[in-house]
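cron nightly-structures :: item 1 of 1
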Amino acid sequence: MTRLLRESVKPYRGWLGLAVLCMAVMAAATALSAWLLKPVVNEVFIARNQEVLWMIGGAVVATFAVKGLANYAQATLMSRVGFKIIADTQNRLFAHLARMDLAFFHANPSGKLISRFTVDINQMRAVVSNVLTAFGKDVLALVGLVAVMFIQDWQVATIAFVVFPIAILPIARLGRRMRKVTAHTQEEMGLFTTLLGQTFQGIRVVKAYSMEEYEKGRIADIVERIFGLNFKSARIRALSSPIMETLGGVAVALVIVYGGYRVIGDQTDAGSFFSFIAALLMAYEPMKRLANLNASLQEGLAGAQRLFALLDQAPQIVEKPGAQAMKITQGEIHFDDVHFSYLADKPALNGVTIHVPAGRTVALVGPSGAGKSTILNLIPRFYDVDAGTITIDGVDVRDATFGSLHAGIALVSQEITLFDDTVRANIAYGRAAASEQDIIAAARNAAAHDFIMDLAQGYDTMVGEQGVRLSGGQRQRLAIARAMLKNAPILLLDEATSSLDTESERQVQAALGKLMEGRTTLVIAHRLSTVVGADLIYVIEDGRVVESGPHGDLIARGGSYARLYALQFSDDGVIEPMIVQA
């Protein structure tokens, strides 16, 4: 709670101060409305004083009008603060997550992270906007009403307030239970969001394998768990009501009995007694709301606790203190005895040494899982090496700023990522200031312009989530066009033409040949026919380099590469060299 107030609420203390001032006006008006019952009873109903009748009536109208205006002002101010806290926290959380490394995102499902932006932050806002508002209004109103009660009859007031503190202990215990249940509910909501996202994204597979009933069962299980937790939360919240109702009834009964004896015995006047009773009954509602408020407070604090835990999680890969902007001029890449593991006991790379000459094309080949994609991921520091060094133009990549390192690298992966935006925006992603001519030129070079012009709105066509409205080959060509537009000195291609038909592949390979001229290109390919023209080929097996050299030398050597090549030749029947000598 202290951290929530310090980091999220403190920047808006000015607005909150105005809101509290409005709450104080409301509390004073509430207390005044209870106090006015004394002259109403004594002067109007008992003394029948007509002169003060209109004066009291006007005072009542003015009191309620001021209370209504103050309530509007504080509600508006608190809503502004609450929604601004949501916006600030969402921006802060996204900025933090954007700095996290790939390993973090692989370990945390997207649904779990999305629930932090929605469920947790909204519950945290409830603490600030609803809980603080209610706490401020009800506490101030309670102070004013208690003051009226003690002014009218301090002895009866003392008896009334001996009873209410008894409720504090059970309500505090209910609050602790509420926080635990809320934390479990939020975890289940994160899993629910993740499962929904996975099911919707993989709906083609779900239908193709007739797994609708299986997925319905999984959804039903988690929905039932969430229902159980929500119902338990509602029962815990509802328990505070009978506690307060019972104790409130006891307090009111004691006041009526004892106060009635005092009026009958002429120890106090009827006006003071009725004013006291009115203040007590009016105070009962804010006291009951404050009791229920503890449950809402614990719910919000559970969300804040999870949110702060995520914000406190530091990225494993960070810029080195004093990192310098890297100016990539040649683009020479060198791996020197590089070791890397995703898991501590399972090395993915074991002593890899690779030299990619500036302006040349180097291919990585080998079986799936050998470590080829890992090598590519280490160059832009998606992961960091466990041992050894990776240099570009002689500079260790760990000594460079992220911005300068990534600016010099273009990546086209077999996992195509397109955003639910226009074709134009997806091609220009990373170069927002690119001209229309540059975008079209990149699309032409990627053999994408013709199919783009056939779309309903051309370059303004929305591609859908992950490019769902396009074919696999079309998505691949847009990704290639994006890399071409970036025009970086280093080009990383991870099965960049894997989804293309024969004719499109020929066009794109010709465009890639132009793009690779004068640039350093590192290619991963499973189809060896696409890399026979590379300047240098490295064969990777079990995280090690087992062979290297040009295509002709490796064939003549009769080793692993020659065996892979012969196997693919026998399977494919035709060898089609695609990458030209750069």
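cron nightly-structures :: done
Residues 142 and 283 are 6 Å apart (CA to CA).
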